[in-house]
Amino acid sequence: MPIENVLLQCDVPIDLLDVERNSAVVSHSACDPDDKNYLLATYRCQANTTRLDVKVRSIEGQYGTLQVYITPRIQPKTCQLRQYQIKPLSLHRRTHIIDGDRPMNMLKLTGKFSLGEVHSWVGYCIPEVPDKCPSGETIVMYFQSTFLDTQLECNYTQGTVEFRSDNISTISILKDVITKLATQRKIALDITYELREESIPHSLRLIHPKLDEQLLLAKKVQLIDALKELSMHEPNLDFLSPEYQDIILNSEQLTTAFKLQPCHLERLYGMITDLYIDKFKFKGMNVKSKVPMLLEVLDNYELDTLIDFFEVSCAA
After folding, report:
1. Cβ of 180: how many Cβ atoms within 10 Å?
2. Cα–Cα distance, 219 to 309 (Å, whole number)
3. What is the β-pairing status of strands 14-17 and 25-28?
4. Are 244 and 234 in contact (CB under 8 A)?
5. Angle at which helices 115-125 and 168-184 pack, to 10 degrees?
6. Could you tell me the pTM of the whole model?
7. DSSP code per residue over 254-280
């Protein structure tokens, strides 16, 4: 059945990613975050369109509902509503093995809760968790971040749940969300945790290749207009460095790659900022006032300098 238009609405921030084979025209409407409305976008499809591919990227720690209103090209007008839950750890997927040599942070929650209750909490936080609680007294599941390649181990039984991850922000999100869920059920939790300081540079090194690539891409895209103007006035560009000549030659590909990754650099900055805040939150320190200093370090990014900033802030 042909599709006339598709409307997307979401109550948490998400990015719409370009899909090359998507011929639909997308338009964005103004949203008011104070009304929990962060996205309102409409895809207007061409005639005889029966399939529409839409890619989105969520922000871990911000969870809600993505609502999709699909209007077919028929009379009388009808609309189908589909709802998709965006979970707190929405960028994680199930895996069967993890690397035991990584520096793993640990969060342990104990209280008067059943195995079914803790399984529902895990399923609320992480995708690909079965609705029905598996048989057995102890459940063990492994997950991997599709974006950063960090890992998560969940081990739970009646009255006890233990999470282990090489990303402190993953542990922080689970602590905040499960504590909130337990409070709603009036269940008291005892919380203990162990942090591995070496997990911070480990996480920053995992982020480094993506951040370095995006910074280089953004730098090249910024130079395109100036280099194109120069090429219009100079018939011979042999005096330019090979790097600049390559930018002129591949300007369209660079621009396309940059457009395919909206807000990618900002999201990476956000992950590093969250990692910084979460690290010190577990130490009982509020370092939000130092975030501008962190952003200055990122603006002149070097991996070793960034790692030193995290360690110096800890010593201070």
Report:
1. 10
2. 24
3. unpaired
4. no
5. 130
6. 0.86
7. HHHHHHTSTTHHHHHHHHHHHHHHHHH
Cis-peptide, bond into residue 209, ω within 30° of zero: no
* Residue 9, CA atoms < 13 Å, CB-side half-sphere: 14
pLDDT in 10s for each residue of the chain, 316 residues: 889 999 999 999 998 887 777 788 888 898 888 888 999 999 998 888 888 888 888 999 999 999 999 999 888 889 999 999 999 999 999 999 899 899 999 999 999 999 999 999 999 999 999 999 988 889 999 999 999 999 999 999 999 999 999 999 999 999 999 999 999 999 999 999 999 999 999 999 999 999 998 888 888 887 877 777 777 777 776 677 777 777 777 777 778 777 766 578 888 999 999 999 999 999 888 898 999 999 999 988 999 999 999 987 655 5
Task: Supply 101's token pair.
Answer: 């040599």
Residue in 310, 286, 114 with CA at minimum distance from that of residue 205: 310
> Could you identify the residue written with the tokens 């194109």?
228
Q: What angle, 0 to 180 degrees and rounded to 10, lies between the N-to-C axes of helices 264-281 and 291-299?
A: 140
3-state secondary structure of 289: helix
Rg (CA), the chain: 23
The contacts of residue 115 (CB under 8 Å, 6+ apart) are 133, 137, 139, 156, 157, 158
List the end-to-end C-alpha distance of the chain, in Å, as a whole number. Answer: 63
What is the number of other CB atoms lying within 10 angstroms of the CB of residue 246?
13
Length of the chain: 316
Do residues 40 and 58 touch, judged by C-beta distance below 8 A?
Answer: no
Alpha-carbon span 208 to 213, nearest angstrom: 8
- Percent helix / strand / coil, the chain, rounded to 5: 40, 25, 35
